[in-house]
Amino acid sequence: MSDAAGPHRIVDPEAMREVLGHFASGVTVVTARTADGPAGFTCQSFSSLSLDPPLVVFAPARTSVTWPRLREIGRFCVNVLAEGQDDVSQNFARSGAGKFDGVPWSPSAHGSPVLDGVVAWIDGALWAEYDGGDHTLVAARVLDLGAEPAGVRCSSTAAPTASCSARRAEPPDPPRAAVSRSGRRSARRRRGGPAPR
Question: pTM of the full predicted structure?
Answer without folding.
Answer: 0.72
